[in-house]
Amino acid sequence: MSEPRSVAEITALIKNRLESDSRLQDVWITGEISNFTQASSGHLYFSLKDGSAQIKCAMWRSSVARLTMMPRNGDAVTAHGSVSVYEARGDLQFYVDIMRPAGVGDLYRQFEELKSRLEAEGLFDPLRKRPLPAYPRKIGVVTSADAAAFQDVQNVLRRRYPLVEVVLSPTLVQGIDAPAQIVRALGRLNARQDIDVVLVCRGGGSIEDLWAFNDEGVARAIAASRIPVISGVGHETDFTIADFVADLRAPTPSAAAEILTPDVTELRQTLDRLAYRLDDAVRFTFDSRRRGLAEKAWALKQVSPAVRIRTIRQSLVTLDRAMLSRERGRIALARERLHGLGIALVAASPQAILDRGYAMISVNGQRVTSAQELSANTEITIEMKDGSRRAKVE
Q: What SS3 class is residue 39?
């Protein structure tokens, strides 16, 4: 009895055996898709089954990017890849790198050949893609007048942006005559000078139903359009050559109409916000200018002749008051001094002396100041406070 192996060892052994078999590393499998899911990472997980068996499959995001249409449950496909084991669950798994619809192999080959040729010419180059107008006034629509897709587009435009005018350039969108009509419809719109953007659209269908939009003439007409073109052909999982050559691809006709136009409700809200901001800006500007003007007016006043004259006049009034005050002080001081001198003069006057009991002697009107001046029998006049008397010296 051999020694027991771990589960990991056995699954690793099976994986190595499968991956070393070249027949299982380059294999095509035809079956029906079931249990289809797309992860948020972009990877696809599904099963391929027939009447007797099924195998789990995975397709990595890098391979998914090369698909021309997204598979769905129930689709019959032919897938290329390699067989291995997903060791974490021990599942046998087919890793798909190429997938084609089964039963339309010839159409698919034509699609891939034209796609490769136009891509090599640069018709899919992102650098040649033109921006779509933000606020189109007229949208040219290339589709059937009776198509439900046209009604869907009109409904979306009426709801989102009723300001836009729709110009239909009618054409067949299916059948052998459709490609030539689509080219002419594009030409009619390009001959006008008032079309801002062109929408090429139709509803979903099989690869045969959408084949007119895989026509080389249609692709070149879209590439040659002087007006930007948006493609809204089929459902989200459908891809056509028109999608790759157009300036923008929309997943559906309705989605194309939404991409092309702004929402009028959002525009009103934006305009309200802008009007409020404009009102604030104008008010702020006026207030700022008003303050600036007031400051300049004040500064101008400070240097105006009227202010200088008023200032000088005020200075003169102040000086006049100061001079008047000084003169009044000087006069008051002089008055006080004069009063003092008057008092002193009165006190020193002969009359004041007489009032104190003294007397003055004079001879013939000449005041006598010394006794030596008087001799006997000299007549003298004696003045006292209340009168005078005559006398003779003994």
A: coil
Among the listed residues 106, 334, 91, 300, the one whose alpha carbon sits nearest the alpha carbon of residue 207 = 106
CB 147 within 8 A of CB 209: no
Of 352, 380, 349, the closest CA to residue 367 belongs to: 380
| Helix axis angle, 178-190 to 216-224, nearest 10° | 10
Contact 79, 49 (CB under 8 A): no
Give long-range contacts, CB 8 A cutoff, 24+ apart: 68-71.
68/108, 68/111, 68/112, 68/115, 68/239, 69/101, 69/207, 69/237, 69/238, 69/239, 70/38, 70/236, 70/237, 70/238, 71/33, 71/36, 71/44, 71/46, 71/99, 71/237
User: Which tokens in the block code for residue 167?
Assistant: 């110009």
- Rounded to whole angstroms, the Cα distance separating 163 from 137 reads 7
Strands 27-38 and 44-49 turn out to be: antiparallel
Distance CA 214, CA 243 (A): 9
Block residue for tokens 């291995």: 84
Please give the C-alpha separations between residue 380 and each of 178, 349, 363, 368, 372, in angstroms, as whole numbers. Answer: 171, 21, 5, 9, 14
Tokens, residue 17: 């055996």
Do the bridges between strand 360-363 and strand 366-367 make them parallel or antiparallel, or are there none, so unpaired?
antiparallel
What whole-number distance in Å separates Cα of residue 217 and Cα of residue 361? 162
- Share the mean pLDDT of the chain: 87
Positive or negative torsion for Cα 235, 238, 242, 244: positive
Other C-beta atoms closer than 10 Å to the C-beta of 279 total: 10
CB count within 10 Å of CB 178 equals 19
- The CA distance from 124 to 231, in Å, is 13
CB 284 within 8 A of CB 277: no
Q: pLDDT tens digits for 108-137?
A: 778 888 999 999 999 999 999 999 999 999
CB 29 within 8 A of CB 53: no
Closest CA to 184 of 142, 215, 133: 142
Write the CB contacts of 104 (distance below 8 Å, at least 6 apart in sequence). Answer: 207, 208
Residue pair 161/220 in contact (Cβ under 8 Å)? The answer is no
| pTM for the model | 0.52
Dump pLDDT digits (tens) for 290-313. Answer: 888 888 878 777 777 776 777 788
